[in-house]
Design goal:
The protein is α/β, with parallel strands linked by helices. It is 26% helix and 21% strand. The chain contains 12 helices and 16 strands. It has helices at residues 52-61, 88-101, 104-110, 114-123, 125-128, 131-134, 199-207, 212-226, 254-261, 308-312, 343-347, 365-369, and strands at 35-39, 46-50, 64-69, 72-79, 82-86, 153-157, 160-165, 168-172, 181-182, 236-241, 267-271, 292-296, 315-317, 325-327, 330-334, 350-355. Strands 11-12-15-10-16 form a 5-stranded parallel sheet, with helices on one face. It has a 4-stranded mixed sheet with strand order 3-4-5-9. Strands 6-7-8 form a 3-stranded antiparallel sheet, with no helix packed on it.
Length: 374
């Protein structure tokens, strides 16, 4: 859903780690049986062992892959073009579930007991489920992410994805999605169409001073933020209060508007009062699938010029113990007090909107709509 990054998703040549990476074998090979016996002594006693290559093959067949980020990597699971980051323990649990559920007749045919098979993994889990070995899973070849285009925007739900164009929107089945998306892009709810206007529309109209022209302008800004198309002049959306002063008042709905947008797009909220543009870890809470960065409640007299490159190009996500990576995002800003947006360069990188004082610390959206707000 509107996802573009500057990261190389698939490399021309996979990294070589501890020998050769796993290479998919013909479908006729039985990866479901990754145990075998060998003679333990001259008396003919057998001992059971795990075929490590076939074990990796079984894990690979179940959708697990290595996902490279520069020279580092994470593990993911790919199902129906949906990519989800997983931990080593997730892979381990999947294998152990299979081992515990293997039909008795399959084990009888092999000549191994359930106790013997399960015992192999309980004896040496670090041998079978360590990052070095699992890196042999390799990456997914030819992986291309679905992203918004100039003509279309995509939003993902449990019951399908919605394709939005200038002609309207349409719910489509995931079988028509031929590119990859991240699991976090899929909203944990089903898409339902409503014919009447909702509370959110009324809320946006209210904070637009109940003025049709301003209402359309704010809708345009919301649409811009939710459309993950980046081959255009990039601008930040700056939300301020119409009754602005040197004394922070707030409670006009700026934060709530950001939370509403997060119900559609993956939004990373960063407290503005603690945001230091000189700190290399300033975007450490963002992820590969982040689509909007929300700098909420920027401190007074913030230097807007420090965001120019982040708005126009991309942001660098620098986390501890992970190589930095870059992603393109839309930028949403809010401030209760004034900060300077002066000069042609600054004004060319921002769209400002002043929220009316319809809501305040004395009258909130919760008071008006009588619902729980978050």
């Amino acid at each position: 859903m509107g996802f573009e990054t500057e990261i190389a998703i698939a490399k021309e040549e996979q990294k070589k780690i501890a020998g050769e990476e796993f290479v998919t074998q013909p479908d006729s090979e039985d990866f479901n049986t990754f145990w075998y016996s060998e003679l333990a002594n001259k008396s003919g006693d057998k001992r059971w062992k795990i075929d490590h290559r076939k074990l990796i093959g079984f894990i690979h067949k179940n959708g697990f892959r290595r996902f490279d980020i520069g020279t580092e990597y994470i593990f993911v699971r790919i199902r129906n073009k949906v990519i989800e980051e997983v931990q080593v323990t997730t892979i381990q649990d999947e294998v152990m579930k299979y081992v515990n559920d293997v039909p008795v007749e399959k084990l009888t045919k092999s000549g191994i007991s359930k106790t013997e098979l399960v015992g192999k993994f309980y004896t040496s889990p670090a041998i079978f489920f360590n990052e070095r070995k699992l890196s042999l899973l390799g990456t997914e070849n030819g992986m291309i992410f679905n992203s918004d285009t100039k003509e279309a925007c995509f939003i993902y739900y449990l019951n399908g994805f919605v394709k939005c164009t200038s002609d309207g929107y349409e719910l489509q089945n995931y079988k028509y999605l031929d590119r990859h998306i991240f699991r976090n892009q899929v909203k944990d709810r089903e898409f339902q169409q409503h014919s009447s206007e909702g509370m959110f529309s009324t809320f946006v109209y209210n904070i637009s001073e109940k003025n049709d022209i301003r209402f359309e302008a704010l809708q345009t800004m919301i649409g811009y933020l939710q459309h993950g198309y980046f081959n255009t002049k990039m601008k930040a959306v700056n939300l301020t209060d119409s009754s602005i002063s040197d004394v922070a008042e707030g409670r006009t709905g700026k934060t709530l508007l950001g939370y509403a947008i997060a119900k559609i797009k993956n939004l990373c909220e960063i407290p503005g009062k603690d945001f230091d543009p000189a700190n290399k870890h300033k975007y450490a809470t963002a992820s590969l699938d982040t689509q909007i960065v929300f700098l909420n409640d920027l401190r007074k007299h913030f230097n807007f010029e420090s965001l120019f490159n982040d708005i126009s190009d991309s942001i660098t996500v620098d986390r501890k113990n992970l190589q930095p990576f870059q992603i393109k995002v839309k930028m949403l800003i809010s401030s209760n007090s004034t900060f300077r947006v002066e000069g042609a360069s600054a004004k060319d990188r921002v769209m400002e909107f002043e929220l009316s004082d319809h809501y305040s610390n004395k009258f909130s959206p919760k008071d008006e709509f009588n619902v729980s707000i978050r």
